[in-house]
Design the sequence.
């Protein structure tokens, strides 16, 4: 007896087996018709293995209820004892409501799923013709068709056949159905049948042997007179037979419909005669046919009617198909047709469109068909109507890379599987992915995704669609195809004229200028030009994938002009798989990285080395810089050498950041933006520290040889000390010295000031290398105070005069160059200031809050949007950093983890110490990382520092690509930034202004 209020054990088992409505399922299982099997554990397991256990159980109950009493027991006995029937029947019932309805109307059709012989596993046209043999009228034909369809669906959902085999079986069933329908039409009009020969040519997916569950069956009719008959009368008779065939298949009766037969691919479309003679077809194709009509003929296949006439038709039109690529404007026509298909999709549906949307099935089919038509003129192995077979042949022939073909094959199979299962549910013609959760759950489970079916389905779908879109653009828009299409076989070269026609479609704003660059790079008969002609088609696609293809191509020309005569440059791009793509990404992503590269083009070698884009550590950098300084003649030459190393390493860091953000074909984009920020911040900090060490060594050696009369240290402050430098950051520092024993203090002070002045001068000299700007404004007394102080002077100042903001600024203090012992003693001196014993008093907390409020009101640039200013705006860097620093000053004395110069580390330590919640820490961290990346993006894209998003559309698009947004999603980027920083501001106001 069940305890009131407690779920029954059956209810619990049903939940565990995937039922979403266990109470209803319990009632179904309690039905008298299922009394003999309701407790059978095998049945429950089998139901739980279906796409929709609730639907499967309901369908089973309806089927059992519809049986005669004797037949009912036979069904239940077979269901329990025969695993093949159980899996097939329940699999179909759980995947297709429509086939469940069919079984309820025709309860004996379950026997179609019992047999399990070799011929049953992979039936062909002959087997389906036997299954339809007794259908002598349209109603019986529909019933017999659904019975055959039931078996196909059972093999499909049970995995006996894969998606390609299921599609081929559906096409074979369609062939048998067209033959049966034509036979009915002939019997209804024997006089018409006697005077004509009629051939039915399958087109589209039926012709390609890759039909869907529910699809228009595209056909073309060819008619000829029988021996001795009048041609006009024969063609009219053939048209009547063809019309009757179409009605038999298309019209709806009490058994529904089979599928529409669509003859609109015929010459002149719906405006042309339904049936033409073979000579009339040829005359039309030779004179009037458009490009898309030859593309459609790729899949033509005789399926019904007079086989001899069908063969004659194929022999006549096939040569025309393979000459189509020589037609003027062939490639642009095909590409325009593809774009027109996408443009005609309603905006509300484009994200759900599985067939026609970006990254959908049509992308694969169009790309494959274009390559078939272009290269099939001289390669008969490409003459296939099947998309997957043709794709395999293209890969085998070297027309598509094997890896690309494998990815397209996998993606196409997955997308077709989705399409099949969506249509199978209600046997309705649709290519839209459903929106409702139960439908998505059933769809995911039907594809074997059982843990989190909806989430797993969406991830897999988006991943495969992304692969299709990327590879489709690479293959479909490849400029080489125009050259191949418009020249005779064997004369394959990059034609500048043909390439120019592609540039605008690829997104180049100045196709005339881009064409000049192409001509300069690829014209001539030299080996250099030959290699460029091999590289350029691929590079153009990569440039086109950026926000500024023109800049990428221009940069490539400049680098090639500078390095074209070096033996290793083009060899590197040709032979090192990643080098060419990495170069394309770097050159088209903004101004900073290309500017750095063009100042020393030989740095392109870094792009081909798998380790070349990893930042080098400080010790390695200091060793190289100090060695270069030691070899130089004079301080100016020494610092020039150090700045040259810095320029190269800046390029390494920027290139690695860009490529990590964009991703490549071999390596996906970095999924953790925080890791990218940390990598850049650490790399730039180490680089600037090494550069300062080199400048210090050069300045000392110029006047004092190896030993300065005073110990000297450079203390990093701000983002420099926090290892959080961006590309546009100055180096905030303090300078500290300590006279050596026996040295005159005044002389030591003069020496220290001379060194500082010389370092600043040398690091900011106008040269081709970017300057390193040194900012010492955080020193005691600010701009009014001495540039450099002794350690004792710092001690005296901080003891008597130090203000709260100075203690806060010292949270970032870290030795960066010079005397290590002196640097360490400086840190010992300031630790009690930045981590005061027992934390901050209330007066100090109020003062910090007051300063922050004042800064918010006074320092925001006039006219700046506070919701988009990365440094001072709402929820930006300042908000997060002041919040974290207040926590450090209040609790750092007691929590060792808070004693760090790094914002993210301090935030993580505050969370570990339970000073901030997990959610709040995550919100602040996300906002800080995003704002930091925005500042980095501005510098990378514009070549100059900035704290807010640019107004120029192209620059904004480039920032979007860096931040992970596809083209056309700039609005989403700005919305996401505002949303992220708004949440961070809410946390900041609670923790900073609301803290006790």
Sequence:
């Amino acid at each position: 007896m069940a305890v009131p209020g407690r779920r029954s054990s059956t209810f619990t088992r049903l939940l565990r087996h995937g039922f979403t409505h266990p109470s209803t399922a319990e009632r179904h299982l309690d039905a008298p018709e299922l009394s003999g099997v309701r407790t059978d554990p095998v049945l429950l397991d089998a139901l739980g293995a279906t796409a929709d256990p609730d639907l499967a159980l309901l369908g089973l109950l309806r089927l059992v209820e519809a049986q005669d009493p004797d037949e009912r027991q036979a069904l239940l006995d077979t269901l329990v004892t025969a695993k093949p029937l159980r899996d097939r029947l329940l699999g179909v019932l759980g995947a297709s409501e429509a086939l469940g309805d069919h079984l309820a109307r025709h309860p004996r059709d379950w026997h179609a799923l019992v047999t399990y012989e070799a011929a049953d596993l992979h039936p062909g046209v002959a087997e389906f013709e036997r299954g339809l043999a007794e259908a002598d009228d349209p109603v019986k034909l529909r019933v017999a068709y659904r019975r055959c369809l039931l078996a196909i669906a059972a093999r499909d959902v049970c995995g006996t056949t894969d998606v390609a085999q299921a599609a081929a079986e559906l096409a074979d069933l369609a062939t048998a159905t067209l033959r049966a329908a034509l036979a009915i039409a002939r019997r209804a009009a024997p006089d018409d049948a006697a005077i004509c020969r009629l051939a039915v040519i399958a087109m589209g997916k039926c012709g390609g042997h890759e039909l869907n569950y529910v699809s228009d069956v595209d056909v073309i009719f060819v008619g000829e007179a029988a021996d001795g008959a009048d041609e006009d009368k024969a063609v009219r008779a053939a048209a009547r037979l063809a019309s009757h065939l179409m009605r038999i298949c298309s019209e709806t009766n009490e058994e529904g419909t089979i599928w529409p037969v669509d003859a609109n691919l015929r010459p002149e479309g719906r405006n042309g005669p339904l049936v033409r003679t073979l000579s009339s077809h040829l005359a039309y194709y030779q004179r009037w046919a458009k490009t898309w009509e030859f593309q459609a003929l790729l899949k033509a296949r005789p399926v019904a009617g007079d086989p001899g006439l069908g063969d004659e038709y194929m022999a006549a039109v096939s040569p025309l198909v393979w000459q189509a690529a020589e037609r003027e404007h062939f490639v642009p026509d095909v590409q325009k047709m593809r774009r027109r298909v996408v443009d005609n999709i309603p905006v509300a549906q484009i994200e759900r469109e599985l067939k026609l949307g970006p990254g959908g099935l049509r992308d694969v089919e169009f790309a494959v068909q274009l390559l078939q038509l272009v290269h099939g003129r001289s390669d008969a192995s490409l003459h296939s109507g099947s998309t997957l077979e043709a794709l395999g042949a293209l890969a085998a022939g070297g027309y598509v890379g094997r890896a690309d073909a494998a990815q397209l094959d996998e993606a196409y199979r997955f997308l077709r599987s989705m399409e099949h299962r969506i249509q199978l549910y209600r046997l309705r013609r649709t290519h839209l992915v459903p929106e409702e959760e139960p439908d998505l759950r059933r769809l995911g489970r039907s594809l074997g995704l059982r843990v989190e079916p909806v989430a797993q389905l969406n991830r897999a779908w988006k991943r495969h669609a992304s692969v299709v879109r990327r590879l489709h653009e690479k293959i479909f828009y490849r400029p080489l195809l125009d050259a191949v299409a418009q020249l005779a076989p064997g004369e394959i070269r990059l034609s500048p004229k043909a390439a120019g026609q592609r540039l605008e479609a690829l997104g180049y704003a100045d196709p005339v200028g881009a064409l000049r660059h192409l001509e300069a790079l690829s014209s001539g008969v030299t080996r250099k030009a030959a290699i460029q002609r091999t590289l350029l088609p691929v590079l153009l696609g990569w440039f086109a994938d950026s926000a500024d293809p023109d800049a990428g191509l221009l940069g490539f020309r400049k680098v090639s002009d500078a390095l074209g005569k070096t033996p290793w440059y083009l060899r590197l791009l040709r032979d090192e798989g990643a080098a060419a793509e990495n170069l394309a990404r770097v050159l088209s992503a903004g101004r900073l990285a290309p500017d750095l590269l063009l100042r020393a083009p030989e740095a392109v070698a870094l792009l081909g080395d798998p380790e070349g884009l990893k930042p080098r550590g400080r010790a390695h950098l200091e060793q190289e810089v100090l060695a270069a300084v030691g070899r130089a003649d004079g301080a100016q030459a020494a610092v020039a050498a150090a700045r040259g190393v810095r320029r190269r390493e800046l390029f390494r860091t920027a290139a690695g950041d860009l490529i990590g953000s964009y991703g490549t074909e071999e390596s996906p984009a970095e999924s953790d933006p925080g890791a990218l920020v940390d990598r850049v911040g650490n790399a730039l900090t180490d680089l600037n520290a090494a550069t300062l060490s080199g400048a210090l060594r050069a300045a000392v050696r110029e006047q004092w040889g190896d030993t300065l009369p005073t110990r000297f240290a450079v203390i990093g402050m701000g983002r420099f000390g926090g290892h959080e430098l961006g590309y546009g950051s100055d180096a905030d520092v303090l300078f500290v010295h300590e006279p050596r024993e026996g040295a005159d203090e005044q002389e030591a002070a003069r020496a220290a000031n001379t060194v500082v002045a010389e370092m600043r001068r040398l690091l900011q000299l106008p040269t081709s290398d970017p300057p390193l700007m040194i900012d010492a404004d955080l020193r005691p007394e600010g701009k009014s105070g001495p540039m450099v102080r002794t350690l004792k002077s710092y001690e005296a100042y901080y003891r008597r005069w130090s203000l709260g903001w100075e203690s806060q600024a010292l949270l970032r203090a870290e030795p960066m160059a010079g005397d290590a012992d002196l640097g360490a003693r400086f840190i010992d001196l300031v630790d009690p200031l930045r981590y005061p014993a027992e934390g901050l008093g209330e007066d100090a907390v109020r003062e910090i809050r007051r300063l922050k409020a004042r800064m918010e009101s006074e320092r925001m640039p006039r006219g700046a949007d506070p919701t988009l200013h990365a440094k001072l705006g709402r929820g930006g860097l300042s908000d997060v950093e002041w919040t974290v620093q207040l926590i450090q000053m209040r609790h750092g004395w007691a929590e060792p983890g808070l004693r760090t110069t790094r914002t993210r580390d301090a935030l993580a330590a505050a969370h570990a110490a339970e000073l901030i919640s997990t959610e709040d820490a995550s919100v602040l961290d996300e906002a800080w990382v995003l704002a930091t990346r925005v500042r980095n993006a501005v510098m990378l894209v514009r070549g100059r520092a900035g704290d807010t998003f640019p107004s120029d559309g192209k620059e904004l698009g480039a920032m979007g690509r860096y931040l992970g947004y596809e083209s056309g999603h700039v609005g989403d980027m700005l919305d996401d930034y505002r949303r992220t920083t708004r949440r961070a501001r809410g946390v900041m106001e609670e923790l900073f202004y609301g803290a006790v």
